[in-house]
Design a protein that fits this description.
Shape: globular
Largest sheet: 8 strands, mixed
Number of domains: 1
CATH class: Alpha Beta
Helix content: 25-40%
Number of helices: 9
Structural class: alpha/beta
Strand content: 15-25%
Radius of gyration: 17 Å
Order of helices and strands: HHEHEHEHEHHEEHEEH
Oligomer: single chain
Bound molecules: S-adenosylmethionine
């Protein structure tokens, strides 16, 4: 499915997933969203084995937020529906393209949007079932298509996130020249030119905040928590 002019990218080793980055920053996130009523968390790209949907919908439930997850793959969307129903039967799982869902989403009440959808083609081979999923819906499975999908999603969602709210990317990193790569290659520069700031970055996840007045200062406690978490995985 890869086109001849599509370059296979070498992704750096990931230190943290996007959903874990959201949870690591939860104190700052909740402080920033305090006083804003009945916000939504929207995940584009439901869990496929690693548990993001489960973790984020529990976080939404514990903090009085609505939760929506969207996936282009029918089986994945079905699996996500079962996961969220066990937490709160008002939560929503949609089988749809995320960028289309966001275009039609009319409320400006998003507290957190997690963008982890159209897969990249990297030096990590994909499972046959993943390749089949793109084939089945006639999607050109290329990195250019992944960049475009995440840019389209960012363009649809940026002004539906409340001021002070967040957009998080998984599989996005800065190269040695300081350019964004991966799923945020074109979406992150777009958001930075539309009032967003980088709040937290560790390979390969990025948390951006729609600037209000308070953006995150360097937070020593958070850095220590991150190191503790890393040490724990080395010791295991
Ligand atoms: C990397 S997985 C998501 C992983 C999940 N967030 C986790 O951490 O477990 C990417 C998912 O995005 C879905 N996807 C691909 N293109 C999409 C699109 N345009 N809109 C919504 N979902 C899409 C795929 O079907 C796949 O399930």
């Amino acid at each position: 499915m890869q086109t001849s002019n599509d370059v296979l990218i070498k992704a750096p080793r990931s230190l943290i997933h996007g959903d874990e980055m959201i949870l690591l920053n939860k104190t700052f996130i909740l402080q920033s969203l305090k006083g804003k009523d009945r916000l939504a968390i929207i995940e584009i790209g439901s869990q496929r084995g690693t548990g993001s949907t489960h973790r984020l919908c529990r976080f939404a439930s514990q903090n009085n937020m609505h939760f929506i997850t969207v996936d282009a793959d029918e089986n994945n969307a079905k699996g996500a529906a079962e996961i969220i129903a066990a937490v709160d039967n008002h939560f929503e799982a949609h089988h749809q393209l995320g960028e289309i869902f966001l275009r039609n989403y009319s409320k400006k009440n998003i507290g957190i949007c997690y963008l982890d959808a159209f897969d990249l083609i990297t030096d990590w081979p994909h499972k046959e079932s993943t390749i089949e999923s793109y084939k089945k819906r006639n999607a050109e499975f290329t990195n250019e298509a992944a960049y475009k999908m995440h840019l389209d999603a960012a363009q649809e969602v940026w002004d539906k996130v409340v001021p002070g709210g967040f957009i998080c990317f998984d599989d996005a990193w800065k190269d040695n020249q300081g350019n964004w790569q991966g799923k945020g290659k074109t979406a992150i520069p777009f958001l930075l030119s539309h009032g967003y700031v980088i709040n937290y970055y560790k390979k390969n996840s990025v948390l951006l905040q729609r600037a209000e007045k308070n953006t995150a200062p360097f937070n020593l406690i958070l850095e220590l928590k991150f190191l503790k978490r890393k040490l724990a995985t080395f010791i295991k």
